[in-house]
Design a protein that fits this description.
Strand order of the largest sheet: 1-3-2
Order of helices and strands: HEHEEH
Oligomer: single chain
Structural class: mainly alpha
Largest sheet: 3 strands, antiparallel
Number of strands: 3
Number of domains: 2
Strand content: 5-15%
Length: 150
């Protein structure tokens, strides 16, 4: 059994050669198939990434727009605010007391309904209050007559 004839050796060589070619062909097919799948996966990931990137850009633009709108609303709300320094109040900053100070000291005719809100700012001993007025016209009138405080 140890000795093979030359014909058997050639037959085995041919058989091994055809197996080798067959295996190499299958490997090349697998490489091609795997390469195609990888390209498809890469393409899918790229498309999804672009979609997410576009969505992020849309959301960033929307965020910027909302921030701008909030800033505008905040400015509009603060437009009617008036900060008064050096006012000594008896207790909390009540609307009636502030109305009296503005009527008597600044000589502007307003009523308590003209003041939306008021509260003390910072150190309570300094007498700084924030007054939110109902309209910008009232604030302008108070500022125009503020020279009467001096």
């Amino acid at each position: 059994m140890g000795d093979f004839s030359e014909t058997q050796k050639n037959y085995l060589k041919n058989l091994l050669g055809s197996f080798s070619l067959s295996i190499n062909g299958k490997c090349e097919e697998l490489e091609t198939s795997i390469g195609a799948k990888l390209n498809q996966i890469e393409s899918d990931i790229s498309e999804k990434f672009k979609a997410y990137e576009n969505r992020v850009n849309e959301l960033e633009a929307q965020d910027e727009q909302l921030r701008y709108e909030i800033e505008c609303l905040d400015k509009k709300q603060r437009k009617n605010n008036l900060i008064i320094h050096g006012v000594q109040l008896n207790g909390e900053s009540s609307g009636d007391e502030i109305v009296n100070i503005i009527k008597n000291e600044v000589q502007v005719n307003i009523c308590s309904e003209d003041i939306k809100d008021s509260f003390k700012l910072g150190n309570r001993d300094k007498g700084t209050i924030l007054v939110e007025l109902a309209s910008f016209k009232q604030k302008s009138e108070i500022i125009k007559n503020s020279f009467k405080l001096k």
